[in-house]
């Protein structure tokens, strides 16, 4: 499969469609099972608070994975992502209620590189705070 986006049709500054991702305690428990990361800060409110957190927090890799979905949805091909990195700046706090939390993600093409690749800069926030810093992906386009 190849990217449905053509390199020649993309300009620096092109904005990708923004997305909002819900995060619930149930999703965190399911992610823990899939990833093998059963750290109680991701599911046990009492423990999370005992170690100084405001509440249960989402896994960093969960947050990172949700954010890159903006890019993979845009390209239509998860394999188009050739490089991806972030810094974790703030946790996604997930209260134990029906709403949970949300991760809001926007992205734009920041540079056109060699070999039909572009650098996409992502911005991810939750509860009005930036949760990922230096979030960048290199993507090979068609």
UniProtKB/TrEMBL annotation:
Family from the record: Belongs to the enoyl-CoA hydratase/isomerase family.
GO biological process, one term: fatty acid biosynthetic process
GO molecular function: fatty acid synthase activity
Domain of life the protein comes from: Bacteria
Name of the protein described by the UniProt record: MaoC family dehydratase
Record-linked InterPro entries: Fatty_acid_synthase, HotDog_dom_sf, MaoC-like_dom
One term under GO cellular component: fatty acid synthase complex
Origin species: Streptomyces griseoviridis
Domain MaoC-like, residue spans: 15-123
